[in-house]
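Hi X.,

You mentioned you wanted examples for the new student's onboarding notes, showing what a folding record looks like when two proteins sit in one file. Here is a clean example. The first protein comes first, with its sequence line followed by its structure tokens.
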Amino acid sequence: MTINRQILLVSRPTGEATLDNFHLAAPELPELGDGQVLVRNFYLSLDPYMRGRMSDAKSYAPPQPLDTVMIGATVGEVIESRNPDWQPGDAVTAMFGWQEYGISDGSNLRRLHDTSIPMSAYLGAAGMPGVTAWYGLNRIIAPKAGETVVVSAASGAVGSVVGQLAKRAGCRVIGIAGGEQKCAYVVETLGFDACVDYKAGNVYEALRNAAPDGIDGYFENVGGEVFDAVMRNLNAHSRIALCGMIAGYNGEPIPMKYPSLLLTQRVKLEGFIIMEHLDIWPQALKELTEAISAGELRYRESMTQGIESAPAAFLGLLKGENFGKQIVRLV
């Protein structure tokens, strides 16, 4: 019998998540039934939204049940099939979670048609983070050439794509990231016009200097003091795509200091969950994969090895220790 190592959520965090919230299990894989497919997962995606699913607080999605495999996207290969629609060797992506193998009836599998790009990219720039960036920028911010767009967590999986797409739309793009190394990457490799290091001092003043004509569009991933600094630099009729607020993922309140600016600047602010917009995925994925294949959309990955490394890597992600898309290699 084959052992399927898994990471289970066994307790809910109080404040910061810890390693004690997780448990490494190693059950045997059952035999396949008629119509089923066995997939060997090659890579696992780690994403900030998972922290919210660990909590039982009211949210847009039900909490992760305790003593079950942690939720998460995977890419891998079919190694056994009793389903005529799927053959061994098929490369697929699915939501198998934090485990080395997945069993499916095939309904939740999606083929990776473009094999010219690395498989792991389908968990980042050519996957959910990339589609999130595409939707928030194009459907909410809707930038016009010549406008200024600001992106928080700019070196991350979502923010890095937002900025590059905004540059392709003819915008002046300013990133916000933590540390000189990340800011250098955002400007020199991703092509942003400027990057503000939120660890280096007054974010409001730095943004005012980087965007002397004000901010027209903002893609929000962080919240807290960074959000406040951006708010004070917004132009009239600016648009905010509210994707995440990682500053509050441990349950702390994150009040806004300047909510009146939403009115006085006539700001459009829209929160969104990308899984509620499945209709745009084909168009977004086509554009993203084509841009990656042509070398026009760059991305970076932080890679750890082995399913046992997932909890620590995830906790590091929540603290900003990753550089680019956080992925676990499972093979």
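Then the second protein repeats the pattern, sequence line and then tokens:
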Amino acid sequence: MRTNPHVVVVGAGAFGTALATVVAQTGDVPVALLARRDETVREIRDTRRNETVLPGIALSASLAVTTDPAVLRQAPVVLFAMPSQVQREAARELASFLADGASVVICAKGMEKASGRLLTDVLEEELPRQHVAVLSGPGFAADIARGLPTAMVVAAATMEKAAELARVLSGPTFRLYPSADRIGVQLGGALKNVLAIACGIVEGAGLGDSARAALISRGLAEMSRFVAAHDGDAATVTGLSGLGDLVLTGTSHQSRNLRFGIALGRQGNADGWSGDLVEGAFAAGVASQVATERKIDMPITDAVAAIIDGKLDLPTAIGKLMTRPITQEFKEKG
């Protein structure tokens, strides 16, 4: 490539392609998209489209695309836009190409299934010479790629690093808010997928909008408890990476997690769906197990995990949730 890219996005799926094109559209820094398949590279170079994942959407003319990981060598900012369960593998595969001191930004929402660990912990273990950050919040790939107004959060180990990344990646239609709460931002992104599945179950089973509203509200309380138990800031879940993302994915049919939940609510099982494509299907079991180990009260998350695993049918799950002991919505202070 003639110009060394300042930002490289790894992963030419819908979200990775969208992030690459929206950052490239700012025109402030050179941006490259690192794809796995030569066919994807040829299509984008020849047509400025990635029709398989973003049909009908024109990509930035300034966006470079390649399959050569050497493009990473001098990039100070690298976005990992692949599913949560392959982040460790990707880090190992690309570690030798990454520049010392580069910022690696996780653009996936989930926890590692095998270990139950946060993705920042996973990548810091694999990439000790890089700064690990995370990007999360309410943003569908198609909306981002089309240049529709979108606001998300980028969290790093320090506010200074987060603010630096926000300045580099933000543009006229894509605004990032900096945060130093990587724990809260990550867990909000992971748990909202689980709760979006729950919202889908409510819709698919025809339980009504009142039930969805109650689920979102009580789900937010679960999210807050889980974040606090991991030493994150419980207030973070009231922002873009928590409530904002939950409202979006719990109400819009663009959400794969919501559609997966609707299928569960209608047919009582996940037949016809690949769990590899639904981040919340992984996160539910992991979060439920961690909550049990840490004695965190997570009844909605537990119910979703049990339904997905076929351990609990929908009527029984609803019955258990509605007959829980009656307690105060908020604990008294003092």
